[in-house]
Amino acid sequence: MVSQWSDFILDKCLLLMGTLLDTLLQKDYKVIGSCIIMSKAGQHIHRASSERWNKGNEEENILPDVACTVKWENDWVVCLVSLYKLK
């Protein structure tokens, strides 16, 4: 179940980030993502990683390499999603 959550969250984040960057940049870039879901009791952890590659020319991107991490939690679990955009 947790594996499905992390896969779903990461897939949606990479899709949204890729769509946004495709629209803004229209150039080469890489997006790397990481999703960590763990029990607040500290007993379980599941981590998923993925990347999205956009092929194109080798001109400079408008945006530099950037990273963003978002934390979400409720009474039972903590979820950390990190995305990295690279030239």
Describe the 3D structure.
With 87 residues, the protein is α+β, with helices and mostly antiparallel strands. The chain has one domain (1-40, 63-86): Tctex-1 (Ribosomal protein S3 C-terminal domain, 2-Layer Sandwich). Helices cover 28% and strands 45% of the residues. The protein has one helix at residues 2-25, and strands at 29-39, 45-54, 66-73, 77-86. The protein has a 4-stranded antiparallel sheet, with helices on one face.
Q: Please tell me what the overall shape is.
A: elongated
In helices, the fraction of residues equals 25-40%
Q: Tell me what portion of residues adopts beta-strand conformation.
A: 35-45%
The CATH topology is given as Ribosomal protein S3 C-terminal domain
Number of helices: 1
CATH class: Alpha Beta
CATH superfamily: Tctex-1
Counting copies of identical and different chains, the oligomeric state is single chain
First-last Cα distance: 34 Å
Specify the biggest β-sheet: 4 strands, antiparallel
Secondary-structure-based class equals alpha+beta
Strand order of the largest sheet: 2-1-4-3
Radius of gyration computed on alpha carbons:
15 Å
Into how many domains do the coordinates divide? 1
